[in-house]
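[RESIDUES AND BACKBONE]
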Amino acid sequence: MNLITSSIGQGLLWALLGIALFLTFRILNFADMTVEGTFPLGAAITVTAITKGVSPLVAILLGFLGGAAGGLITGLLYTKGNIPILLAGILVMTGCLSVNLRIMGGSNVSLLGQKTFFSAKIFQTLPRYFDSVLIGGGTIILITILIALFLETDLGQAFIVTGDNQMMARSLGINTENMTILGLTLSNGLVGLAGALIAQNNGYADANMGIGIIVIALASIIIGEVVFGYLTLNQRLIAVILGSIIYRFVLLIVLQLGFSTNDLNLISAIILAVCLMLPKLRHALKLDGILRKGVSQNGK
């Protein structure tokens, strides 16, 4: 039961990363490599701030702002510097590694003996792992509602149109460069927020904790889309959250089968590759026809 509760809590906390990447990967239509730098940046800022006596809640806000600053730089390099988005993301990601080492004064910082958001008295009264479920659930619900409301506004609609068709967006008078910068800043701010929360939950920040992060975020998005199919935009946000939880259960099953935690990045890559190939495999193996035939025979 503890493992199931822990997986749900972890899925809710990491869902924030999936929702953040959804803004750039699915709405703006590009994969932003900056997240592998801004995730540990948010964690490094938060953990270092807490060790300096800053309130855990304020430290989380600082993590968000740090991530947003990274996304802003990527946006400016891409739109004003005419650097391809993939390269701009890699440049910022690489730069963040040195920044994180500067902030932490080393490769990692522990929160041992420090007060964190998760060690607040109200969460200490809960059963084991329920703190991550409550904090992760509350945060992801709040963020998802805010993003859904934002996407309904004129600014949000301009943001969506920019991703759908930049030429049409410009013909409507939308400044697509500003929309791209906005998307990257908001997305990486949420990535920094995810790093801040997960670092407090894990009890440390490490300069290398961003490696493979983009695969985990993509897995949440792709699993949600594969499992739940065609949905409205708001429903797709919820599917990302459920995809993140399903992904954590898959990892739990894999670990229960005896695999090492050192294999997690490889396993994540395999899970993502299988999910991406699933529509083609389903068509190639004619699984849809087999399933329909099976259902019709059972219905006779």
Remarks:
- The chain has a mean pLDDT of 89.
- The longest strand covers residues 108-110.
